[in-house]
Amino acid sequence: MIDINYFRRNLNELRESIARKKFSCDLDSLVELDRARRDAISAAETERAGQKSANAEMSQMEKGSPEFLEKVAQMKEIATKVKELETLAKESDEMFQKAFLAVPNLPHQSVPDGKDESDNETVSTWGDAEGDFPHAVPHYDIPWFEKMIDFPRGVKVVGAGFPFYLGDMSKLVRALINFFLEEAGSNGYAEIHSPIVVNSASATATGQLPDKEGMMYLDQNEGVYLIPTAEVPVTNFFRDEIVDGKDLPIKRCAYTPCFRREAGSWGKDVRGLNRLHQFDKVELVKWVHPDESFQHLDSLREDAENLLRKLELPYRVLLICAGDIGFPHSKQYDLEVWAAGQEKWLEVSSCSNFTDFQARRANIRFRGEDGKPRPVHTLNGSALAIPRVLAAILENHLQMDGRVRVPECLRKWFQSEFIGP
RNA sequence: GGAGAGGUGGCAGAGUGGUCGAAUGUGCCUGACUCGAAAUCAGGUGUGCCGCAAGGUACCGGGGGUUCGAAUCCCUCCCUCUCCGCCA
After folding, report:
1. Counting Cβ atoms within 10 Å, is residue A77 exposed (0-12), middle (13-18) or buried (19+)?
2. Cα separations (Å) of A173 from A6, A41, A163, A228?
3. Which of A39, A47, A136, A336 pairs as cysteine with A345 (C-beta 3.0–4.6 A)?
4. Interatomic distance A44 CA / B83 C1' (Å)
5. CA A154, CA A343: separation in Å to the nearest integer?
6. B strand bases under 7 Å from protein CB
7. Per-residue pLDDT for A340 more than 80?
8. Are A107 and A325 in contact (CB under 8 A)?
9. Which nucleotide's C1' is closest to A73 (Cα)?
10. How many Å apart are CA A388 and CA A391, to the nearest integer?
11. ipTM computed for the complex
12. pLDDT digits (tens, 9 = 90+) for A61-90
């Protein structure tokens, strides 16, 4: 949620920002709701103050005396009035809060205008992307692919989108996880191993609820959701807390499986490893001082980029335009790896600065120099999503002999130079 | 899953219907004393909301109720602890 004072003072600027993001929300009625809420709260509190001072008098009076009983009779009316006004105040407050929660975060000035993904800016490209890969094939067409990643048995045991990784492939997945975690660690992200289910309060704080409920698997018995990304449990680690300003920036990384129902997106780009219901990912999360968050976004992106370089995978960096940026994001970069066999770009990371938007929802603050609590800025980014990286490795590093060369950086956990038949 | 106990300020811990936002201890900050420190003494020390401000109001796990008045009584949910059962 955005800063309410900003909303009150910069309505026109806010209107433009929302238009830039191609979101729509009725700011005029929001202004009215805010007005109504404040009036209702004032009215209720004034009445309540009167009731309290009368009660203070009564506490001095003799309990059963005629004056006392008379006062009780008088106060009954006021008590009813207070209750009514408090109910009204609560209702109008809730109405405002609900509407206010639907206001998207502001896109940063450096975010380009644009209507949708076609207007995203390619800010850099690394490696021999879209170059010459004469013998490349889509990873799912590699002859031994199905021997190492078993989709039919996944369908039997669970359903579509839950493959088994077998033998060396399983080992390669593990190597990637280890590589990503180790790199993150050496970049200053403290590793945490997190729950992979969360309650609705957590999912609301990071923005999955209420809008994107359909993306998550829900256990109705317990009222908990399977996480769509480690962002949710990791960011919520500090929910409703005030951290010491001296501890910022706080950097954490976590490996988790991620679960996405992907309802409605079936049928396209779903072959092989491109889109799964369960996948592994290492996530980087930062809590930083508001003055530094955009520098931190750049370094977060570089941390993710370095992984692709070490894996020798061509990639490009997209600066997401205002029209394509998500609801809670202020600025977002996507990293897309070149899949030489499919001849397309696969998104393997999304690095975002949420400024204080998530921090307000999650009520994560720090104590600044003046001793007053302020919302922190939160950032996160994938580093990286495993299956698509795996797809890119299989497609880009496929040899003439049909085997796939395993990048040097994984050798520590995957001892052989090649994977294949 | 069964039985019992309990959730109060950074922490510990009083308070069972009436100036209680809450005693006391401790921690932390400031000042005094000191060459400095310790000890001691004095003062300060939560968060949100409404308000230009003065100030008001809310919060004693969450929600609801009773009452003129609730940290205190009732209902309900959540959580923690102890014992039993079950499982790893």
Report:
1. exposed
2. 46, 56, 12, 19
3. A336
4. 49
5. 27
6. 18-19, 47-51, 56-58, 64, 68-69
7. yes
8. yes
9. B68
10. 5
11. 0.86
12. 877 788 888 889 889 999 999 999 999 999
